[in-house]
Write a structure and sequence with these properties.
The complex is a heterodimer of chains A (123) and B (109). Chain A has no helices and eleven strands. With 123 residues, chain A is mainly β. In chain A, strands 2, 4, 5, 6, 9, 10 and 11 form a seven-stranded mixed sheet that branches. Chain A has a four-stranded antiparallel sheet with strand order 1-3-8-7, with no helix packed on it. In chain B, the strands form two sheets. In chain B, strands 2, 4, 5, 8, 9 and 10 form a six-stranded mixed sheet that branches. Chain B has a four-stranded antiparallel sheet with strand order 1-3-7-6, with no helix packed on it. In chain B, strand 6 and strand 7 form a beta hairpin. Chain B is globular and about 40 Å long. The chains are: A mainly beta (123), B mainly beta (109).
């Protein structure tokens, strides 16, 4: 059974960097079939996929257009963790953030989710 | 990027059948996946691909698709099915990306 455990601060100041970590158990962040995602949810924007990273002989990352210039998703194989770093945040980045796994296959479904992390951007 | 459109709210009488729809150009190329979300919880996958239920999802949940419209069907809705439902698919303008619908709030009367 795959489990995703999220951690990180719940309050970030405007213009700073929002960083969250997702610790994976039951699978490997360097899996040759899965990809590892960050998704957020706010009342204004609903569920919003932010990006993903995966390993296929090398690391790949893909980001949503809305955050492409501010987002970096990284993997730490020694800790089996996934991280999100969202730069230059504004109050519009206030949301519940989730990490989630795409197990493989052609249709990119999210089968396991983290518990969610509420992050508030406020001074 | 592409968009997926869902009706904001749908209601169904207890034990009846309800269809929740999702529309978007991406659905011509990719099947929708469906998620159920209850208040304060993370979304739960209920259908993926053409019509596949993960282990533990009741068989009253099913899916179909035609053209640019995908549908989630709940046959014999139960009180515990009251929740928000979201569709998602790959983005046909850049198929490395994923898009979500805006969600449908299902009320079981």
């Amino acid at each position: 059974q795959v489990e995703l455990q999220q951690s990180g601060p719940g309050l970030v100041k405007p213009s700073q960097t929002l960083s969250l970590t997702c610790t994976i158990s039951g699978d490997s962040v360097s899996s040759n079939s899965a990809s590892w995602n960050w998704i957020r949810q706010s009342p204004a924007r609903g569920l919003e996929w932010l990006g993903r990273t995966y390993y296929r002989t090398r690391w790949y990352s893909h980001y949503a257009v809305s955050v492409k210039n501010r987002l970096n998703i990284t993997a730490d194989t020694s800790q089996n963790q996934l991280s999100l770093h969202l730069h230059s945040v504004t109050p519009e980045d206030t949301a519940v953030y989730y990490c989630a796994r795409i197990p493989g296959g052609s249709y990119y479904w999210f089968d396991f989710w983290g518990q969610g992390s509420l992050v508030t951007v406020s001074s | 990027s592409s968009e997926l459109t869902q009706d904001p709210a749908v209601s169904v009488a207890l034990g009846q059948t309800v269809w929740i729809t999702c529309q978007g150009d991406s659905l011509r190329a990719f099947f929708a996946n469906w998620y159920q979300q209850k208040p304060g919880q993370a979304p739960v996958l209920v259908i993926h691909g053409k019509n596949n239920r993960p282990s533990g999802i009741p068989d009253r949940f099913s899916a179909s698709s035609s053209g640019t419209t995908a549908s989630l069907t709940i046959t014999g809705a139960q009180a515990e099915d009251e929740a928000d439902y979201y569709c998602s698919s790959r983005d046909n303008t850049n198929n490395h990306l994923v898009i979500f619908g805006g969600g449908t709030k299902l009320t079981v009367l």
